[in-house]
Amino acid sequence: MLARWVTLALLRGSLLAGPGQGEVITKECAYYNDNWRAEKTNQSGYERCEGDKDKRQHCYASWINSSGTIHLVKKGCWLDDFNCYDRQECVATEENPQVFFCCCEGNYCNERFTHLPEVTTPGVKIQPPPAGLSLLGVLAYSLLPLLVLSLAFFLACWTYHQRKAPYGHVDINQ
Fold it and tell me: Record's Pfam families (predicted)?
């Protein structure tokens, strides 16, 4: 357990001692060129990223999606683009471009690439609540049930007194 903790601490320390906190150094990227014959290059492999030491290196991938069929165009190294900072995965976020593009930081991070368009919610117009009930409405809703109950109680009492014998209780056994 202690060895594992020490290893993690050393690894974390070496990462933090790099160019900047949270910054990943990219040295190599997956390489592909669909137009390799015309450009007289290799078709695929790995590319060593070269450039100024003070600039960040990234990997990229570009492809075309024709009716669900993905056609890879290019992969390789990409130089210092703030849109690629702190991205460990190659994910294109544009809705429906002609050519999809993604970039990322980290060795060979462009081997796998995906398209996840940003979710935008349509402008939902929130309707304000209906105007509050007026004082008359509140009184009507509150007093009307009380009035109905009182009327029912009054009718019950009146009916009881109408059916009651007029002379009260008379003992027949006398």
Answer: Activin_recp
